[in-house]
Specification:
By secondary structure, the protein is mostly helical. It folds into two domains: 79 residues, no CATH class; 51 residues. It is built from seven helices and no strands. The protein is elongated.
Length: 155
Amino acid sequence: MAKLTKMELAAKINDANGNNDLTSAKVKKLSHAKLVEMYDALCQAPEFDEDDTLADASNEITIPAEVAPSSLLDIISASVTKATETKPAKVISRKSTVEGPCRIVWDLCDSMNYTKEGGARRKDVLKAAEEAGVAHYTARTQIQLWRKATLNPDG
């Protein structure tokens, strides 16, 4: 079975519906699998034989009477809604609440054996620094400066 791109599938679905409800913006938000599912729902043929390929331009798509265009729109809008749901934003501290945040990060890197085999990972050091009251971006910068100074002392 030849695999169609997302845009090719969307074009076939739009042709089958006789409209252009699936815009490129909506298609980008949908997974390839979801588009195939929508196409299969239109054709009511969830499985294809080796002889039946979606890539043939001669394949005609007919919408069964049971699948009303409004129900297809409901499927699309439900898919787009689900695809666009986001996780709550992580709050990033932009101002350190401790004195000497740079020194704290460097000490954490030393004490957590950052970059040594079996030592802490970068994200662990970053998390510890943030928990100590160091601003997120200050910690990131200082971890990188510590790494550069420690691993390559010649500059």
